[in-house]
Design brief:
Layout lengths: L3 E6 L3 H11 L5 E7 L2 H11 L3 E5 L7 H8 L6 E6 L3 H10 L2 E4 L4 H16 L3 H17 L4 E6 L2 E6 L5 E5 L2 E6 L2 E5 L3 H7 L5 E5 L2 E4 L3 E6 L5 E5 L4 E3 L5 H9 L1
Parallel strand pairs: 1-2, 1-3, 3-4, 4-5
Antiparallel strand pairs: 6-7, 8-9, 8-12, 9-10, 11-12, 13-14, 14-15
Amino acid sequence: MNKLRLLIVDDESLIREGIRHGLASRTELEIIGECDSGELAIEAIRSLTPDLVLLDIQMHDCSGLDVVQRIGVDQMPAVVFVTAYDEYAVQAFELNAIDYLLKPFDEERLLRSIARARERILLQREGSFSERLRSLLEAKEKRWPERIVVRNGERFDLVPVSTIDWVESANNYVQLHCGTRVYSLGESLTSLEGRLNPARFMRIHRGRMINLTRVIAIHPMFNGTYEIELAGGLRLGSGRQYKEQIQTILKN
């Protein structure tokens, strides 16, 4: 191998810039491209065939695991995941990925991760990469996060999923309603829905999702709509297209 051909995938421009700056002096590396979305990453991986991808776990259009799924674990190059997940998720990545970078990370941590990935690639362990990625995709189907990481100024709040009463879409963000506290998360409602256990959380409206454990009553309204009453007395209206989902609660 000559230079390690690297693709950077992250929807935060500051993160991409920091990686570029941190690796600028490394002559053994060649940054062949940057992507700010999962869809662009899929195109770039297929067309540029990088040796290594620094891959953001959570992007605005899809997750890094979705990218792996679309490419296929056998065709996927080596991966270092970039994540703002909590310790529980990081442990899973550590077992199944070449490495991970937990945001925010410094230049020293970045260089250690690249060195580790380069060593693995030089040892031609692509077969084990595929097995690790396959295991991680299987884990995605079985494990659900216990906490949601929310950026709060200069810090990250770790919000227990069990404390979320309901979730509301707010343009490009969602608001997590946890009792009297409300957290703003830079993620779409559809994306968050895919990360939460469907046995615990249900979409009842284009812009709302509820924690099923908080439901104490369901009130039929008009044209196949309902009002869902949560513990504490709050009532949330449903959309007509979610009639069947709500009826499953009544049947169960």
